[in-house]
Amino acid sequence: MKKRFVACVMTVVVVAGLFAGCGKKKEAESSVSGSETIKIGVGVPMTGGSAELGGRVFNGAELAVEEINEAGGVKGKKIELVSMDDKADPKEAANVAKLFVADKDIIACIAGYNSSCTLSGAPIYNKEGLVHIAVGSSSPKVSTAGDYTFRVWNSDVYRATFDLNVIIDAGYKKIGIIYQNDDFGQGALEVAKERLKEEDIEPLVAEGYLLGETIDFNTVITKMVDTGCEAVFAIADETELAAFAKQCVQQGYTPFISATGTYNPSVISLGGDAVEGMVGDSYFDPDNVPEKAKEFFDKYNDKYSANGERTEDPTSPCAYAAIYMLKAAIEDGAETREDIQKYLANLKDFETVVGSLSFDENGDVKIPLVAVQIKDGAFAAYK
């Protein structure tokens, strides 16, 4: 994948006065009509352990903005993305939130990929009344983060249960778990334990790892071998997931693996033969992609694919959909940050590239999932 998004990140000049008033509501309220362009913030990891996925969020948002602007913008105004790197670091995400809320021209944000970053920024966005839409944050805690927090992504109450059910439905009882040791992984772990408890199953191993730091999984793999784990539920994204699978192969350990992060082309490119047979979830049946989604990925790959290689992922279309939700809000008459919040809180049956979406009382959507499996180095429907 091209690293084009790095070059696209706008240079943001930070002056001391930008922080003035961050602790209280500003007197001059942001409005669409009061600015030359419609500014939307994008605060996601461009560097750090989730840079590849953060890049997909940015690219999806950028593609939507370019389409909208080429068609004349929104009410005659162009959309302008103001992009900042939260480095997959909760402290940095809080700083990004402070900068976004202080810029009176920013009407809304796509902010928060990692759950811990979303939860770190949420109190700031909610206190100052700036909508942030998270793409990628699956922690159940996001559901109660505040009225100005929305997400175009499934909660792990649904997604982690779905991925774990693949293992349960296959009849496995001896199960091990690896999880990213942060809000994302811990939230999904609790969901998994509750689901297993319903089946009178206790995980034989449950080990956490640190995003961007853990590279050696041999100790936990040895534990899984010694305890007889026949299946592994991996609450992990591409880098660690691929590393875990490769080290399993090196030890001659071949468990059935279902993972939350399987449906990412980087899992295949990083894991190679080691990830063959791995199962996960997607919004689309890879063998029968809906026309809207196919058109999106055609445009996405024309713009961002390296070496003409086609890739499909769940992240970029969600960011793309989020931008179109904001466009719809402004077209409907939303002028202020508060107007944006009210529109989204009542948004129902909004057609997107990932299906018809509605926000519930917690600002969550539920995107129907299908099980997928890596077969012959590509994604296919799991049967």
Automatic annotation (TrEMBL):
Signal sequence annotation: 1-20
Protein name (record): ABC transporter substrate-binding protein
This protein's record includes keyword Protein biosynthesis: no
Keywords, comma-separated and alphabetical: Amino-acid transport, Signal, Transport
Keyword Transport: yes
GO biological process: amino acid transport
Domain Leucine-binding protein: 37-377
Family named by the database record: Belongs to the leucine-binding protein family.
SUPFAM superfamilies: Periplasmic binding protein-like I
Recorded superkingdom: Bacteria
